[in-house]
Design goal:
Blueprint lengths: L6 E3 L5 E3 L6 H9 L8 H14 L4 H14 L5 H4 L4 H8 L8 H21 L2 H6 L12 E2 L4 E2 L4 H12 L7 H10 L11 H12 L9
């Protein structure tokens, strides 16, 4: 049953953001991960890669294959993935446990190399990402009560997308980057009344984000 302000009752009766849809997989992800601040480079790289794989697909598909992706892509350690070559691409194209899309697989390997470049210049992927945290005045209203949809981009996601593309990254359009920002806590799009909103806000208040080198 839908509750007020875009919340839904989960399988346990707990109020959650509407997109969790009463599915156990989504509920666990919503409760434990989505919107929680992340500062570990490996996890940030994984999240950005998986958002790229999600393009054109359901996030539930990616979520249910996540462990397979981790095994296939060396746990998304950028230095390891950067060493992948043509033989690895063919291996991955034969792996039924992941999304077998040549362009997205090649993009992940390319982005691992670009991530190493970025870490070398900025100090860490986390420092770079957190420098794009939007100011409060820049955050649009996320929930459309009529359509039950959320905005898919923001000024900050557009800026990050453009900058990553200039650095040679691929599959990092503004929509993909915005979904990444939601997932790793750069924005907190849990709705008012969702218990996870205050939890995510508390974690952000306690966080001291890393700073880009030379800033």
């Amino acid at each position: 049953m839908e509750l007020a302000d875009g919340l839904v009752a989960g399988t346990d009766g707990r109020a959650r953001c509407w997109w969790s849809s009463g599915l156990v997989d989504y509920e666990a992800y919503h409760d434990a991960e989505w919107g929680r601040p992340v500062t570990e480079d490996r996890r940030l790289f994984e999240k950005l890669c998986l958002e790229g794989f999600q393009s054109g697909l359901s996030w539930l598909t990616i979520l249910r294959k996540r462990e397979n992706f981790r095994r296939a892509f060396a746990n998304f350690e950028p230095a390891a993935v950067a060493e992948f070559g043509d033989a690895d691409i063919e291996r991955l194209l034969g792996d039924a446990g992941i999304v077998r899309h040549r362009g997205k697989i090649a993009s992940t390997i390319n982005n691992a190399r670009r991530a190493l470049d970025l870490i070398g210049t900025e100090g860490s992927l986390a420092a770079y990402v957190w420098s794009f945290e939007p100011a409060a005045a820049e955050r649009p209203t996320r929930f459309d009560r009529a359509a039950l949809t959320a905005a898919s981009t923001s000024p900050a996601s557009i800026r990050m997308s453009k900058d990553l593309k200039k650095r040679g990254w691929s599959f990092v359009g503004p929509t993909t980057v915005y979904a990444f920002m939601q997932a790793m806590g750069l924005v907190n799009d849990h709705l008012e009344g969702c218990p996870c909103r205050s939890e995510a806000l508390k974690l952000r208040a306690e966080l001291v984000p890393p700073v880009r080198r030379g800033r």
